Amino acid sequence: MLQCNIDSRASVFATYSEVGENSLFNAQKSDIRGMRAYKKYPNRRLYDIEESKYVTVEDIRKGILKGESITVVDSKTEKDLTRMVLMQIISEQEGEGREPILTNRVLEQLVRFYGGAMQSIVGGYIEQSIMTFLEHQERYQKSVRNITSSDPLAMMRRAMEQNMDFWNKMTQTSRGPDRG
Fold this sequence. Notes:
Blueprint: H1 6-19, H2 26-33, E1 35-40, E2 46-48, E3 53-55, H3 57-65, E4 69-74, H4 82-95, H5 104-113, H6 119-149, H7 152-175
Parallel strand pairs: 1-4
Antiparallel strand pairs: 1-2, 2-3
């Protein structure tokens, strides 16, 4: 069962509003655009290959929030360090006092899955669950946008008309058929 307190939900919407409208599926769209490539040097500095400049982990996090997919490689060995940097970003977010998304109990269970028969299934299951969650969130936010973007006077007029129709039907029913 998924439990989520109000503060967590507010945090999700605050993060959504930080990166802007229609950004929930940018991660999927960025696969089409390609990866943003970074190199990590022995001095622990990160280099953005596309923009030819050094960046921080925070810069990479902001790019991810905008929907960019990334790849990070070691400058000497060409070893893929992407997962390590992504985990560092998550760790730093939690270190800054943000509520952990993955509880200790979940992390312990993930550790147990490594090397087991379920290891190959769990990653895909978690990914699909997150994508389904994002899809539902996008639909909800789209319906909220549709409601709030409507003309408020027209909405009030429709509501009043519906109330009047309901009132007329109720009074007509309570009086009985006309005996004119």
